[in-house]
Design a protein that fits this description.
Residues 1-22 form the signal peptide. Residues 45-262 form the Ionotropic glutamate receptor C-terminal domain. GO terms for molecular function: ligand-gated monoatomic ion channel activity. By secondary structure, the protein is of the alpha/beta class. The protein has helices spanning 2-33, 36-43, 72-84, 98-103, 118-121, 165-171, 185-193, 204-213, 240-255, 258-270, and strands at 45-50, 53-54, 58-63, 66-70, 87-92, 109-110, 124-126, 131-133, 135-140, 158-161, 179-182, 199-203, 217-220, 229-231, 234-236. The protein folds into two domains: 36-132 and 229-271, Periplasmic binding protein-like II (D-Maltodextrin-Binding Protein, domain 2), CATH 3.40.190.10; 135-220, D-Maltodextrin-Binding Protein, domain 2. The protein is built from ten helices and 15 strands. The strands form four sheets. The chain has a five-stranded mixed beta sheet. The protein has a five-stranded mixed beta sheet with strand order 11-10-12-9-13, sandwiched between helices. It has a three-stranded antiparallel beta sheet with strand order 2-3-4. It is globular, with a radius of gyration of 24 Å. The termini are far apart. It binds arginine (ARG). Arginine is lined by residues 51, 54, 57-58, 95, 112-115, 161, 164-166, 185, 203, 229.
């Protein structure tokens, strides 16, 4: 009798465990059946990843005594969140870590002035291009005249943000030991100020923003013959409905010439 009770208890607990596991699997299966767009709407949050030392795209700014992440990418992200009817959550990280964060599900999309290169398209999908910029070089203000062609960089130390297109451009101009790559553009700027690097390659609006805020820095326009860098939003592969929703917001913003407005406002905000 005692034994029978024991056996019964074991059988029962095994049944409970199985039913709990069964439920978990079912929930998971349902979750997987939901599209990315449905998941975002249900969670009430759009979690974006960015790398916020790239004015006027995205940067930190003290507003009313509070540190905030602002910039034209952020304005675009706000519009996407509001079109989806959800709250915007911003995660600031190193640029080089953004696509991994996207593919492991830590963030829903990347908006970071990211160029939709063929290499990146192998691992993620992209929205349409919402902004196009040329390349430029930040140097010490008194050095601007000395930097006119890629040749002028030959014996120089070049600073870049790790994992960017600009790092690739640098590789095409100087050997690897003349390239210093760091996670944040703000840190590369410190290297330039400390004469550890001679020139930093960035997109031209970024060069202008840093030069305007730092009297000791200037911008040299060098044509690297690499073409312009467009910016697009990166989304995990296979989220077709989410990409379509993002493109719809971008279409609306571009038709209303809102993006130019955001760029102008963000440039002004970065300037003071
Ligand atoms: N457009 C360049 C790229 O995709 C640089 C982007 C850097 N963005 C940033 N938020 N730091 O590689």
């Amino acid at each position: 009798m005692k034994n029978l009770k024991k056996i019964l208890a074991v059988v029962l607990s095994v049944m409970i465990v199985f039913s709990v596991v069964g439920c978990g699997q079912k929930e998971e299966a349902q979750e997987a059946a939901k599209t990315k767009l449905e998941q975002i709407k249900e969670s009430g949050q759009l979690v974006i990843g960015t790398s916020a030392s790239y004015p006027p795209y995205e940067f930190h700014k003290q507003i009313d005594g509070k540190d905030q992440i602002v910039g034209f990418d952020i304005e675009i992200a706000k519009e996407i969140a509001s079109d989806l009817g959800v709250e915007l959550v911003i995660k600031d990280m190193k640029f080089e870590g953004l696509l991994a964060a996207l593919n492991t599900g830590k963030i829903d999309m990347v908006i970071a002035g990211m160029t939709p290169t063929e290499e990146r398209k192998k691992s993620v999908d992209f929205s349409k291009v919402y902004y196009v910029a040329t390349q430029s070089v930040i140097v010490k203000a008194d050095q601007v005249e000395n930097f006119k062609t890629p040749e002028d960089l030959k014996d120089k130390m070049i600073g870049v943000q790790k994992g960017t297109l600009q790092e690739e451009i640098a590789k095409g101009v100087v050997p690897a030991d003349q390239i210093k790559g760091l996670g944040k553009v703000a840190d590369v700027i410190l290297e330039l100020k400390g004469d550890k690097v001679d020139a930093i390659i960035v997109e031209s609006p970024v060069g202008k923003a840093y030069a305007k805020n730092n009297d000791d820095l200037g911008v040299a326009e060098i044509d690297f013959n690499t073409g312009d860098s467009g910016s697009a939003i990166a989304i995990k592969k296979g989220s077709t409905d989410f990409v379509a929703a993002v493109d719809a917001t971008l279409d609306r913003l571009m038709n209303d010439e809102k993006i130019d407005e955001f760029v102008a406002a963000a440039t002004e905000l970065a300037d003071n």
